[in-house]
Design brief:
This protein is α/β, with parallel strands linked by helices. The protein contains two helices and three strands; from the N terminus they run E-H-E-H-E. Strand 2, helix 2 and strand 3 (61-65) form a beta-alpha-beta unit. The chain is globular and about 35 Å long.
């Protein structure tokens, strides 16, 4: 896990489960390290809260409601 600020400047981190618990903590850690963070999870309110916290602290974030267990519902195709 990155610890120094701006170590990940110019990078993007995609965090699944970013709305609570370990995923939320990871999203915040990446943001503190300078990454733009995309929080993906089923809990829409949770990821919006995480992203709002990141933006309020001066970081960049995007909330992407998704269920990674349901490929048919995702915007990604293989």
């Amino acid at each position: 896990m990155p610890t120094s600020e701006q170590q990940l400047s110019g990078k993007v981190a995609i965090v699944t489960g970013g709305g609570r618990g370990i995923g939320k903590a990871i999203a915040h850690a990446y943001a503190r390290a300078g990454a733009a963070v995309c929080c993906a999870a089923r809990t829409v309110a949770g990821i919006h809260e995480t992203v709002q916290d990141i933006v309020t602290a001066g970081g960049q974030g995007l909330a992407m409601p998704t269920d990674v267990t349901q490929l048919a519902r995702s915007r990604i195709s293989f």
